[in-house]
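Supplementary notes for students who missed Thursday's class. We covered one full example, reproduced here. Read the sequence, then the structure, then the short commentary at the end.
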Amino acid sequence: MTPGKAIRKRPGARYVWSWGPGVKGLFTGPGCLTGFWGDANANVQTVTSSPFVQDSERYRTMRLSFGTLGGVGNTIEQVHTAFLVADSMYVVAKTDAGIRHYFGKSTDVTANRIEDANCPNGPTAIPVASKVFAGDPSGVTRFSKTDDPKDWTAADDAGFLPTNRKTRSSNVIAALSEFDGRLVVSTGDAAQLWDVDPDPTLMAFHKTIAVGQVAGDTGANVGADLFFLSPSGVRSIVLNSQNANAMDLDVGVPVDRLAVEIAKEPGALARFFPSLGQFWLISGARALVYSFSRTAKVYAWSEYTFPWEISGAVDFEGAAYLRSTAGDIYRLDANYEHDDDASAAVAALGFERDPPSWAEGFPEEGRVPPTVRVVSPYFDFKSPAALKQIHAMDVVATRGNRTGRFEVTHRFRSDTGSEAFEAGPIGLSDLPDDSRPGGWIPVGIMAPSIAAIIEHEAAESFELSALIYHFDNLGIAG
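Structure (token representation):
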């Protein structure tokens, strides 16, 4: 949904690089996109059959080392979170020896696992107030020494917040976030807000909000607000404009049914892409996308699907990037009319990926044009019970080359209590961008209300601006 209240085809996914499936995650590093691997990870380099450099200037990997080469703890299974702090990367990873925390640079050749016994080694961590905060299995939230994420023991500097004493029912810390400079500690059923500071003596409990985040990677800051996945759907914490107090809002009500399904699935993640002005809730190959413009007063949810499952997402240097479970990296490009699929290209061509070559020109065998499907609500034309004779329609839709499939199917009921029927599809491919000067498009349906299903599938741009119906109100109950 655009600020002009038109529906536009989403950006295409352009192939830019590949890592092996043994490299985990996709996060923003020091001037690059970063993934992580362990000494015992298989398939780190073997994703291609042709020689190439695993790391490039923009796409770099970092070794996470437990200690003994190839020993237990050196297989990285999943990266829960990673962020840049104090000029190095702080990483929370699931290994074959359990969850471990790491801190170091991509150039490190020595072990970079945090050895401090007070480091919680749980799945959550976040940098706030020049410290790293992390959830402890006991229910408290520990914090590191100021500007030293490897030290969790320093007297009068490192310590913990007694978050286990402020819970509603569960004391398991599901997620840590930041809102209005405060630390947000979510236990699934509630969220605690804490004032935090480099000086531990200035830290204090602020308040509890009766809705919480379900998992650590399912929340994102959207401007001054915090959006997150709760057990009942996507919710947000915002500042009340009247008294500047934090309050929760049900921003995701239109997609609650879909979001609740995602809340039950493992591996969901949420991101805000400033380059797109959108919040994404991602699960598998689909994303629930919230587009908004406060100036234009546009607030709309969409569902995007891709040819591959998404295992990582990040906004970097003014562009949104997605990583597939196969280790391929794609950049979203509004001027690109395809979705690249590296696995499909490999299957069609019979040889493995060649990142430097494919980044310059991706094989046609792996390109798929995204399908746009718009399902409207039922239109009753401000007369809910009256029967209408719907004669025709006009469509205003801008298309690049006016090629491929473009059609509309209608749903309707013969009266207000009957089952729904479908009529169509009506082909629209041969129409100009604005059908109004050229005559009506016949519809021929008699019903109290009607819904439209618009579908477009072609390697071209697409924007739907208006559907206009021409009808007679028969003035009798349908």
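Commentary. Confidence is low (pLDDT under 50) at residues 47-53. The longest strand covers residues 462-477. If anything here is unclear, bring it to office hours.
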